[in-house]
Design brief:
Strand 3 and strand 4 form a beta hairpin. This protein is an alpha/beta fold and 352 residues long. It has one domain. Helix 6 packs across helix 10 and helix 12 crosses helix 13. It has a six-stranded mixed sheet with strand order 6-5-7-4-3-8, sandwiched between helices. Strands 1-2 form a two-stranded antiparallel sheet. The protein starts with 9 loop residues before the first strand and ends with a strand.
């Protein structure tokens, strides 16, 4: 859920950076409800390599280009938006309520996005879910254990890219103050992710102002949950073919080169909760041009989340799920898939 992963950035992988999970509850948690805790997972940089920004893999490659933009949603505040009303849905049955809120991983500190409907939903939740748990983001040992998924010592980056591609990647790295040599052993997908964070910083974005980070500090004693593990998210990217990885990298590079060119459109679409516009910006191109990548990073993950939500709905209580906005829109979005599965789903904001 996006994706959708911090510029969810021009690369559609973000629409949220450090994913965390939290809950604020004004009523006692139902002791009869069963809760399963998942291990904390985090994303951190490998020694000698740029630290990647993964907030939910999901975003990271939607239309790859928009992936980068996705994360930047809200980067410059809500331009042209009189009143922010990011999309939120509620799933209900006789004894369970579950809210779905579309997020962006990075925002400017002054951005206003909270609404009375959001506050009420978040406050009522007994459990808060995010794409992944980044509480152990400083766990270098964990990231090192995943090195085989993002490091390829047998074939350096310079042998995978053609001269023009390599020149563009190196130019971006140099502009961001990153030694090109540090990228040589990294797989293309990881190079893309490693460049996104620094790119966002040059735009003045603050990960700490991202929705997940803000909410994680407000959970209090409530239960925090994750839909995926960092192992799974790395695995999604690592499952791409070399050609797909290179395509993902170059789309991300294009997004970085264009900078804020498309941000206004994206930001306003998220702020308005404009389902159709977000589908066009974040998912449509990736689905058409990179169908296998779309299937891996968006559809399959959404379907897996639907199964987890169905399990939660079989219990009782109130849950709040905050994931990249790109995972919640369109016919392949989680709300639509839940309806197809027979669950009652209503859009809370904006009113349809």
């Amino acid at each position: 859920m996006i994706r959708r992963c911090l510029w969810r950035s021009r690369s559609r992988a973000y629409l949220t950076p450090r994913s965390s999970q939290f809950l604020l509850t004004t009523r006692p948690i139902n002791p009869a409800r069963r809760y399963r805790r998942r291990p904390n997972n985090a994303v951190n940089g490998q020694d000698g390599a740029p630290a990647p920004v993964l907030g939910g893999v999901a975003g990271m490659a939607r239309r790859v280009k928009s992936t980068l933009l996705g994360a930047a949603l809200g980067a410059f505040g809500l331009i042209g938006a009189a009143a922010a009303e990011p999309a939120m849905w509620v799933v209900k049955d006789s004894d369970s309520t579950l809210y779905l809120f579309g997020t962006v991983h990075i925002l400017r500190p002054q951005t206003t996005w909270r609404t009375p409907a959001f506050e009420a939903a978040f406050k009522a939740a007994e459990e808060v879910w995010f794409e992944i748990d980044l509480a152990s983001a400083s766990d270098q040992n964990k990231i090192r254990s995943l090195a085989p998924l993002f490091i390829d010592p047998s074939k350096p980056l310079s042998q995978k890219l053609d001269a023009a591609q390599l020149a563009r990647v190196r130019a971006v790295a140099t502009k961001l103050g990153l030694p090109a040599a540090n990228l040589e052993a990294l797989r293309p997908w990881f190079v893309a992710i490693s460049l996104i964070g620094p790119s966002l910083q040059t735009l003045g974005l603050d990960p700490e102002s991202g929705i997940e980070n803000v909410l994680s500090k407000e959970i209090g004693a409530r239960s925090a949950r994750a839909l995926e593990t960092i192992d799974q998210q790395f695995g999604f990217f690592a499952s791409m073919s070399e050609a797909e990885e290179i395509g993902f990298l170059m789309e991300s590079i294009e997004g970085i080169e264009e900078g804020a060119a498309e941000l206004d459109r994206l930001i306003n679409a998220w702020a308005r909760g404009d389902d159709g516009e977000l589908v066009t910006i974040l998912n449509q191109e990736m689905r058409e041009q990179f169908p296998k990548v779309y299937d891996t990073l968006i559809l399959k993950r959404n379907l897996a989340w639907v199964e987890q939500i169905k399990t939660e709905m079989a219990k009782s209580g109130v849950d709040f799920i905050a994931v990249g906005a790109g995972h919640l829109v369109g016919e392949d979005g989680v709300p639509a898939l839940l309806r197809k599965a027979g669950l009652s789903v209503t859009q809370v904001q904006p009113k349809p």
